[in-house]
Fold each of these.
Amino acid sequence: MSQHYDLIIVGGGPAGLTAAIYARRAGRSVLLLEKESFGGQIATAPKVENFPGFSAISGAELADRMYTQAEDLGACIELEEVLSVQPGPEITVTTDYGVHTCTALILATGMKRRTLGLPGEERLSGVSYCAVCDGAFYAGRDVAVVGGGSAALQDALFLADTCRKVTVIHRRSQFRGDPVLEEALRARANVDVVLDTVVTGLRESGGALTGVCLQSTVTGETRELAVDGLFEA
Ligand SMILES: Cc1cc2nc3c(=O)[nH]c(=O)nc-3n(C[C@H](O)[C@H](O)[C@H](O)COP(=O)(O)OP(=O)(O)OC[C@H]3O[C@@H](n4cnc5c(N)ncnc54)[C@H](O)[C@@H]3O)c2cc1C
């Protein structure tokens, strides 16, 4: 059994690291537990342009600064996955490395990735959820991005720098993401925007994605689009 903490925070994304900074400044002993990589989703953002104080900063650098700030303030930060939590006057947190106890617990575990639910999605090479991680594999090739929020727009902008063509597919008639990102995207010559359209199937050859089946949500019309990569955002 390790040391007892005033506060244990589960999740080392922006929310968890922020909580650690505030709690340390309030004089609490803090253990922050992260299962994968510090910074959470923001660490994969190519460019963050809405964080006050930075006109533009890479997500990785922003994550690094948050981590350093929490660590410099004395937060104990460990790479451990929280497997279970036992409530009580003394909360018991079990991880893949051991057991910790605390008086208060903050769950800052972020979101769960949403998939399209299509056959082959989990198995096929060519289906990705991270443009920053996998985009380089598709340099000079044709890809599609599915989604309508800022993450999708950012992914498409990032991919447009190196891919031959990027098709952005969104099920609604308008994007939900930042208008400034949409404006930047529409100015790119190698980006096609396909609205009111859903992906209904994946085409493959030998375990690799070769295209996507599309259906208009307005007319019901179907068609296929040949792509080497599909980025789900
Ligand atoms: C490509 C991309 C670009 C983006 N760009 C921007 C942007 O420019 N501006 C902006 O404001 N937002 C942006 N976002 C959104 C932003 O990253 C998220 O809103 C933010 O990361 C949410 O922070 P969070 O701490 O709540 O969750 P997350 O970032 O999801 O962090 C949760 C953390 O909890 C960890 N975790 C989960 N379960 C456990 C467990 N059992 N044990 C231990 N750890 C666990 C996860 O590994 C993860 O690191 C972007 C997102 C993406 C994907």
Amino acid sequence: MIKVKAPLRQDSRGRVLDIIRATEPTSRIELVRETSLTPASITHLVRDLLVQGLVREVGQAESTGGKPRTLLRLNHDSMTAIGVQLGAASVGIVAANLAGDIVGRQVLRGVADLDPQVIVAFLADAVAELIDNLGLDRSTIAGIGVAMPGPLDISGGYLRNVSYLENLSGFALADELETATGLPIVIDNDATAAAVGEYWLGTTDKHAAYATVYLATGIGSGLVVNGMPYRGSSSNAGELGHVSVDFRGPECTCGNRGCLELVAAPPVLVERARQAPPSAGLGEISRDNVEDAMSQLGILASRGNEAALTIIRDGAELLACGIVTLVNLFDVDMVVLAGPGFTSCAAIYLEAAQKALDSRTLARGVHTVSVVPSASPRDAAALGAATLALQDKLERKPAATEKK
Ligand SMILES: [Zn+2]
């Protein structure tokens, strides 16, 4: 049965692990102070984590008069998870350790035109290859997180209505992938996974209210407040690409009219480039892969090709309109630009979005909103998905119990 991952970890074990990760080396006394759990609870939780090998003791802190404090660190490589960003035009796979560090990655072709069973075999092979190449012990792998474009309509364990991946409609992806890999699977929206990934990449503060705008084949956004992703009632919150910017505009596949995605998504910008006259100098734009084409267009724009610059700037201005709406609705402190669509032209998008936010948001006199590039635009969603798999494992069943 597919699990769309619910909350960021909130159980005590998870909180303790988060604090150790953020402050290591730390001690039980500091954990009591940071969590407001009782000393007895912390002693018990830390004992469990030591038994499971997730945490280790690393000597003692110099005494400041009281009893010496035993220092604790995460055992970073005691657990690894695999994250998959499953896209129409590309697939990114990462392996991340317990500290949220990426320890291996690969980028593969997209799966828009593949049969679902072929996709499962393709992913299972790629994951197995990554595990082998990294020399990872399979018994330490928590599971696989899969980040996909929305909308995710999951009914009875089957995917439905996934944008740009209609070939997966009616397919039980998680069950099939679990069978093929022998690893537990969690699924989430790619923009939400990217927002979680940005925290782990160090782009954002856990306590901030921030949004990630995710540009791949489509346009999405993920929201995090106080370390918690906001998913709405069906994990379909933040569908920025389907905010209407023209109510008389053309009908979108979603049923709305004049959606942002119809005028600003990479396939639309790339098509404009492909239609440009030869004199525009855009002849080298890929005819096959929209992400490659977007990347080439971005490179040409940053080299000063006027036609490319006009197309990317138009896309950036339109997206900036959407970002102003996002900020007006959710009053975030920061917007992170993530996703493969930004890999070669983030600077143009950043400038347009920052200018729009500085001059057009309702609360601009109250606080500023900064726009920053992702620390790793291509990896953010896959990393976020990997960390969701880690959390799922940690919350589901303590490893020590499983071994019995
Ligand atoms: Zn739409």
Amino acid sequence: MKHSNGFYMSAIVCIASLTLLFSSCSKKDQALNDPTPAPTTVEEMKNYLANQGFDREHIVFEKDRVIIEDDIIITIADLQQRVADSKAGPNTEQRRGTYIVSNAYNSDIKFYLEPGIPAVWQTAIRGAIANWNAVNGTRLGMSIVTSAASANTRIFMGYENANWIARAYLPGSDSRPGVTVEINSKYNTMSATQQLFAITHEFGHTIGFHHTNQTFGTLIPGTPTSDPNSVMNSTVLPWNGFTSWDVRATQILYPQ
Ligand SMILES: [Zn+2]
């Protein structure tokens, strides 16, 4: 979720190729039997992401993770798995599906709030949970837990003098919710309605949504190629409810 809209269009343009990036092969068992693979180089991973349509300037490698489009985080391990899958070539015998949250977790995704989260953000977090819980026709559910041990997703404060308001992990290849949501304290004084939008957006990443709903829209006849008021657009807006396509996408991803 970003504050300025400088990269808004490029975010939309590259969505078409997101499907592949965030798809998975059920090749885990196969991979486990493989001999130690050659390590995937950073350059290889960058090339892979660039081939998926991402702007190289918005691919940032950190120690054990990569940050794409400012606020979407995936682990290096997951990225290496995707690169390895792509090297294996197309395999018509295996179905590919998006990394989303499995039924073991998606009806009650448990968030833990680290100490030190300002009251305004706690309000936004509770509001975002209420937003997602209010979507009709889906099995999706979320709640707050008071112990880190029982949580799926940890929420904590960070600070960077940058334009990301908050950032979140996508679900991993283990089909668990994204492991953390980090909030940038630089935006502690942003309007409450924008904070609510931002956290609702990040929780969308936590359950597997990318920027805009085009990925899912392709499954629906008559779906627009962009949805300017969607909560999953990358630029913050005042919260004004989910769009009808946000709701439809959620119902498709997490049917009742
Ligand atoms: Zn985002």
Amino acid sequence: MGKRSKSTRTPGAGRKKEVLDTVFTCLFCSQKAVSCKIDDATRIGYLSCGRCGQKFQCQTNPIMAAIDVYSEWIDATEEVNTAD
Ligand SMILES: [Zn+2]
């Protein structure tokens, strides 16, 4: 806290389209090594950490993207952690 982040808005910069992130920070090892992908045929989302080997799968719908798989994983992980 207290850190002032530089404005990320640069008016006039030629940034047309943001590429959606598919690599995220791991909840277990805190490394940015979690990659997500969604199988278009089955709509199953896959997530795995390249550092600690955590894995997760979930059913997705057509409007979900990689970050949604990551969100599902966070929810599932929190459920496990608070499940008593
Ligand atoms: Zn990890």
